[in-house]
Amino acid sequence: MRLLENKVAIVTGAGSGIGRAIAQLYAEEGAKVVVSDLDEQKGKETLTMIKDKGFEAIFMKADVGNADDCKKTVDQAVKTYGALHIACNNAGIAGKAAPIGDLTPADFDKVIKINLSGVFYGMHYQIPAMLKAGGGNIVNMASILGQVGMAGSSAYVSAKHGVVGITKNAALEYAKEGIRVNAVGPGFIETPLLTNNLSEEQMKQIRALHPLGRMGKATEVAELVLWLSSPKASFTSGNYFPLDGGYLAQ
Fold first, then answer.
1. Close Cβ partners of 66 (under 8 Å, ≥ 6 residues apart)
2. Domains of the chain
3. Most buried residue, 78, 89, 210, 212, by CB count within 10 Å?
């Protein structure tokens, strides 16, 4: 039997990179997947990839920074598949790079809205649906910057630290009701966001930040998220799991 047989899952930011890898792996392991992304074209590409392999999925265009969109995504999951058991709140943006004195309030607020408030909005609607289903699993996407700082990234660092904190709180609040909540902290992952926007020299410098000498792969993050979403991680809740090639050990 596949790990997520007969489960219903939502993956936000599933149009590319880590989110796409998670959605595909969830589907391969038996879940019916709601592919959520603001980019309709990329989201539907992920949907096609899943359905072409014979697995079940639907696409939902949604902005995680909009609470109504988060509610509609959960409502659609329940309407289509009858329940909600798993959610990976993965959607996020890097935001503008600038020191705090130069970063505008609008730039800061935008990153917080999507990367942190979006996780709250997601869980706010996901949790009641999971309670009706008898329990569930939530994985929130943090970052290595959910544990340490990085100059020029105050909004992102603040948001990702917040994701770790809200994960711990949700885990405590719903542990006795059968809902587990964990956070994953990727290091630099080789996705189109990086490879399409950085020079080879910049990529080389980023690889060198990791003791393992390379960046991670989206599929490696997906494997950890799958484990946390499955019965194999049944005694794990309220934890932060880095996947960073040794970055945080330095």
1. 121
2. 8-190+217-245 (3.40.50.720)
3. 89
| Residue among 26, 125, 156, 247 flagged as catalytic | 156
User: Cα–Cα distance between 45 and 73 in angstroms, integer?
Assistant: 18
Identify the segments of the chain with pLDDT beneath 50. Answer: none
Catalytic site includes residue 26: no
Type and span of the H or E element at 58: strand 57-61
Strand-strand pairing, 86-89 and 8-12: parallel
How many angstroms separate the CA atoms of 64 and 69, rounded?
7
Judged on CB neighbours under 10 Å (0-12, 13-18, 19+), 200 is exposed
Q: Quick check: pTM over 0.85?
A: yes
